[in-house]
Specification:
The protein is an alpha+beta fold. The protein is built from eight helices and 16 strands. The structure holds 4'-deoxy-4'-aminopyridoxal-5'-phosphate. Belongs to the class-IV pyridoxal-phosphate-dependent aminotransferase family.
């Protein structure tokens, strides 16, 4: 596997990470995961914009232009011969002796790789089981930073309960999942948490809302409660790797009779259509 590290394309074994990289000490950096379909980056502009937004918010200046970055990522996809997969990229604040204060003059460190990943067809077909959990994260969940400890703990909690993922909530208001956004359907309307500081502004969420509009399915971006979640006609999640995946149970209780619902199915079909073109 070929990595892109500090502007060089190298086999994974030859990538040398400094122990003083601030990503390693502090999770001090930004990242993106971009889908590759048919050998092409999906929604690359939106991912780039979100990366820049995160970088600016944490006071980091990216050293590569948009064109340089996208050219590099496309080259990575080509060198790894990825047709269906993902690109992961991260920028850390740089290499410096450990101190909380931002280092003077340190250059951000870029690391990226591309790998094969099939569409999760079984989960998309059959749906996933979820458990609800307190959202203990900080108040800038809109930033895609490397600090993912709460997310990894949440995912592990789900697995320990025999579920596939968590649905997080703050005092009874549903936010999102460990690595995806959540939505419910009630009386034919999609409801999903507003894109504010409490959730990641998912690119797939945005694509889903765009498709819903095109299909004439009404959608509301507003907070919804755990009670609304339990009483929903349908529940689904969206994310780069999971696309639109139905949720068939919440805390052991079936959602929409334990079967993926019709609105979810329409969105899935529209999504499949969108990535075909
Ligand atoms: N929320 C969280 C916490 C995530 O980590 C992700 C994806 N990595 C998402 C939502 C979905 O975002 P996207 O559709 O851009 O992948």
């Amino acid at each position: 596997q070929i990595y892109w590290y500090q502007n060089q394309f190298l086999p994974k074994d030859e990538v040398r990470i400094s122990p003083e990289d601030r990503g390693y000490y502090f999770g001090d950096g930004a990242y993106e995961v971009i889908r590759v379909y048919h050998g092409k980056l999906f929604e690359a502009d939106a991912h780039y914009d979100r990366l820049v937004r995160t970088a600016e918010a944490i006071h980091m200046t990216l050293p590569l232009s948009k064109q340089e970055l996208l050219d590099g990522l496309n080259e990575l996809v080509k060198r790894n011969q990825v047709q269906e997969g993902t690109v992961y990229l991260q920028y850390t604040r740089g290499i410096a002796p450990r101190a909380h204060s931002f280092p003077q003059g340190a250059e951000p460190v870029l690391m990226a790789y591309a790998g094969d990943l099939k569409r999760p067809l079984a989960a998309m077909e059959n749906g996933i089981r979820t458990v609800t959990m307190d959202d203990i994260r900080w108040l800038r969940c809109d930033l895609k930073t490397l600090n993912l400890l709460a997310n990894t703990m949440a995912k592990q909690h789900a697995l320990s309960q025999g579920a596939d993922d968590v649905i997080l909530h703050r005092q009874g208001t549903v936010t999102e999942c460990s690595a995806s956004n959540a939505a419910i359907v009630k009386n034919g309307r999609i409801i999903t948490h507003p894109a504010n500081h409490l959730i990641l502004h998912g690119i797939t969420r945005m694509v889903m809302l765009r498709l819903a509009e095109r299909l004439g399915i009404p959608a509301e971006e507003r907070p919804f409660t755990l009670d609304e979640l339990q009483a929903a006609d349908e529940v689904f999640i969206t994310g780069t790797t999971v696309e639109v995946t139905p949720v068939v149970s919440v805390d052991g209780l079936p959602v929409s009779g334990g079967q993926p619902g019709p609105v979810t199915r329409r969105l899935q079909e529209a999504f499949s259509e969108a990535i075909r073109s």
